[in-house]
Structure formats: C-alpha cells, structure tokens
Write a structure and sequence with these properties.
The chain is α/β, with parallel strands linked by helices. The protein is 49% helix and 20% strand. The chain has 18 helices and 16 strands.
Length: 502
C-alpha cells in the first residue's frame, strides 16, 4: 500500500508547480473580480507564490530539455553503433564466405598432407591430400582416433613422436614408403604442438611432404642402416617389410638428427636467400632500393622448405646466432660485389638468441672493415618483444652495431606504453609497425588512430616508419596520407630469390 502511494506521488510530483500556479492564478482572478476587500499582504503573498511556481516550472522545463537532449544523443550514438555493427557483420559474413571458399581451394589442392589431432589423438581436421594418401574417405578420418586408421606398425612407430610432441617438442621424422607400383617415396613428417594461451599443449599438427625417389637413388645418410635394422626387428610382419612385394603400406620410419642437418646446411650453403621489396608509401617519391632478407632451406630435388618448417628446430638447438651470422656474411659479400654507386640496401632479421651473442656485433664490424662497404646499407631488424625481454643486452648489442655504422629497425612495433618506452633505451632508425594494425586501418578507426600516433611520435624523434603487410592500394594511399614513409607487403611484391635483383 505504501509503495503504491509513493508511486502515485512520484507520478504527480512534476506537475505540482503547474497545479500551484493555476490555483494561485485562479484565486487572484477571483479576488480581483469579487466585492470582498482583501488585505494587500495576502494578495502580495499570492503573487510571490505564483512567481515561485513559474520559476520552478522554468527550471523543470530546462532540466527536462537537458535530460531529453542527453537521451537523444545516447539514442543517436546507439543507432550509429548498431548501424556500424550491422555493417561490420555484413562485411564479416562476406569475408568469412570468401575465406571459406579460399580455404576450400587450399584444402582441395594443397599438395602437402595436413591433419590436426587433439591430445586424445582424435582427428579434428584433415585435408584432401591426407585422405588420398592413406586411401580413406572423409568419414573414415573425421573425429576418428589415429590408431583406427593407421596400421599397427606405423602407429606404433609414430607413437614415440606423438609422445614428444604432446610434451611440447617439435619433431621431424622421415620414412621410405614402397608404393603398389614398386616405386619408392621418401616422406618427411613434421609433428608440431598446438599451445593455448597458458602454454599448455591442446593438440598437434601432422604434416607430411612426399617425394618420389629416383631409380637407384641412395637413401639419405645413415638411413639405409636404420632401415635394415628396422626390417630385422620387424622380420615376418608382412605389411611393413620393404621387400618388393605388392603391398600398399610398406614403410620404414627413421628419426632425423635435425641439429646436425642444420649445421650441415649452413656449412654446405644449402640455405637460399630470398628478398621482399620495401618501397616508399608515396608512389611519386624516389627512395633508395631496400629489401628485407628472407631465408629458405634446400631439400633434395632442389625443393625449398619454408622457414616455418625449419626455424623451430634451429631455435630449439640454439643455432639461430650461427644462422644469422651466415645470412649477414652472405649479404655483406653480396653488397661488396655490386657495382660502385649501387643504392641497394638490405634488412636482416635477428633472432632473440642472437641478441645475447656478444661476439656477433664484433664479427660484423670486422667483416665491414675487411670488405670496405658502406655500413648504412645494412639494417638489422629486431622484434620489439625480443628487445623488451632482454633490454640490457639488446641495448648494448644495438649500441655496438650503430658504432659500426649499421642501421636498426624495431619490428612489430605496437601502440602501447612499453613499445614507446623502449625508444628511451634503444636508438632506432626505423619502426616497422605491427601488421595487425596496418590490416585494419580502413575498417577500424581505433587502429587507424594508433598508426597515426605512432607516425607522429616517430617523426618527432626523426625515426622512419614502415607499414608491413600492405596488400591493397587503398591501404597504401591511407598510409601515405597519414605520413608513413615506407611500405612492405604483397601489394609491392612477393618474396623472390636474391639472384633476381636487377
């Protein structure tokens, strides 16, 4: 009952001043037309009450208009936000549809066998090549456990690799498979763990790259003895012997000592250098020609392995300083062979472990002194996160390189306090802005503002800026408009062998 009374009072409260004004006005009119003599102080009091009621009404009206304007602004903002959400949702649906079509093309035509398994070894993804290689239909693989479609001997052999990958290691194996037509195939298998944000293994990828072996081809070093030993161990198992019989699944797995393989590749120049162009953001601006140096590893038959397949092994065995030194030596000697007056320069990526190598910078200085090239043609690229993780060593490392005359670029530079604070300790010549920001500047005003702020901050310190992952002309034009100096990405050009530089 009390609540209902309070509710009624709240409902009529805004109208009390108006009601009081009407009543007082009526009394004044009545007194003015009546024959009854009224004391002047009573009339004056009524006029005071009337004026007070009118003032209260004016205040209420002003307050109501203010509240209405605020609510109207909120409604307009919600309407705009809803319109943007609808627009972005339509864009996301379109992009998702296009991506799905592209992924389907990759799934159908990707020549490498690829599958993903949970920690329980249940298949959650597999491409067409994976199914065809094992002669299985999709329903025989999808959500099935590995042991259900691998023969017993093969499953037993890869079990060791699976145990290692589930413990967080990246594993590579090779095996020779004799096909039904009596030809032999050398298959390289990669087992790569999938970590969640907490660093726990939640699954693993299996990636197989097959290569037909030529008649009379010698197996990779030490593989023949291991195959023989393996055959002896499994003597009598019909479907696993390489005996020349017409069996479809005759295999021999051989583990590879990848640390020795990497060292051998460095010593025998089995790595290949690739380049990707870095050009001015403004198409009408002429700047020195610059390339970022990329690396590929050679395999048999002149095939090239992408860095994602071998760099995890290089890092695991702490061979990155040696590989980075090899790349730097090759680039320095390449520059030394160029014609006098050549304006070509190179950006060389450095690994986190290389930043802790006190001899690397001294080695570069000795090389530069020996070949007499312009040090400014070398720009060493350091990941911002790597520099933050070991700030003291990185600062000393950068100082030594700069004393030799080399340039420094901080890569994956983001719009956060720690990235900006890094410039208090490390003097950089270029900031390569994180590609995740660059990709979104046309559809995310916040990311665009971040890139603009980085550009203004860098230019205030007289530091050049580079936008990476530029894939459309619209993004290039926007970057040029906000003052980004250089761009890199597939719009400019794909990676190509260093020998093709004109």
């Amino acid at each position: 009952m009390a609540m209902r009374t309070t509710s009624k009072i709240s409902a009529i409260k805004p109208f009390l001043s108006a009601m009081a004004a009407v009543v007082v006005m009526a009394l004044l009119i009545a007194l003015d037309h009546s024959l009854i003599t009224t004391d002047s102080y009573i009339v004056a009091g009524l006029w005071v009450i009337l004026l007070a009621a009118i003032l209260v009404m004016i205040v209420q009206i002003a307050h109501t208009e203010k509240v209405f304007a605020k609510q109207f602004a909120q409604l307009a903002a919600q309407k705009e936000r809803l319109a943007n959400e609808i627009k972005y949702r339509l864009w996301a649906e379109k992009t998702s549809s296009e991506s799905k079509a592209k992924l389907q093309i990759v799934d159908e035509n990707f020549p490498v066998m690829l599958a993903y398994f949970s920690t329980e070894q249940q298949c959650q993804y597999h491409n067409r090549a994976f199914r065809q290689w094992f002669g299985l239909r999709s329903e025989q693989v999808e959500n099935r456990f590995l042991k259900e479609f691998f023969n017993q001997s093969l499953f037993f052999d890869i079990g060791v690799a699976i145990e290692r990958v589930l413990s967080g290691e990246t594993v590579q194996n090779q095996y020779v498979q004799q096909l039904a037509n009596q030809s032999a195939c050398l298959v390289t298998g990669h087992f790569m763990p999938h970590f969640d944000s907490a660093g726990r293994v939640i699954g693993f990828y299996m990636l197989y790259t097959p290569r037909l072996m030529k008649k009379g081809e010698i197996l990779p070093q030490n593989m023949g003895d291991q195959v023989a030993a393996w055959q002896k161990q499994l003597q009598g198992t019909k479907d696993t012997q390489i005996s020349g019989k017409n069996t479809d699944q005759q295999v021999a797995w051989v583990s590879v000592d990848f640390s020795k393989r990497i060292i051998q590749a460095i010593e025998q120049n089995e790595f290949h250098l690739y380049c990707q162009s870095i050009v001015a953001a403004r198409s009408d601006q002429e700047v020195p020609i610059c390339y970022e140096v990329l690396i590929r590893m050679a395999e048999e038959e002149s095939n090239l392995i992408p860095p994602g397949a071998f760099l995890p092994f290089v890092e695991k065995y702490n061979l990155m300083p040696r590989l980075d030194k090899w790349v730097a030596e090759k680039i320095i000697h390449y520059i030394a062979k160029q014609k006098q007056g050549s304006r070509v320069s190179f950006g060389i990526n450095l690994a986190r472990s290389t930043l802790n190598d006190p001899l690397f910078a001294d080695h570069i200085r000795q090389l530069l002194n020996a070949v007499k090239i312009e040090p400014g043609k070398l720009c060493f690229e350091i990941e911002t996160a790597d520099a933050m993780d070991n700030l003291q060593n990185t600062a000393q490392f950068v100082k030594k390189l700069r004393q030799s005359g080399c340039l420094i670029s901080l890569c994956s530079f983001n719009h956060d306090r720690s990235s900006f604070d890094l410039l208090k300790h490390i003097r950089a010549d270029f900031l390569k802005i994180d590609g995740s920001l660059i990709c979104n500047i046309l559809r995310d005003a916040e990311d665009l503002k971040k890139v603009e702020n980085i550009s203004k901050f860098a230019h205030a310190l007289k530091i050049g800026t580079i936008g990476e992952l530029v894939e459309t002309q619209d993004i290039r034009e926007r970057l040029a408009k906000i003052g980004i100096d250089y761009i890199q990405g597939f719009l400019v050009g794909c990676p190509f062998p260093i020998e093709e530089i004109q």
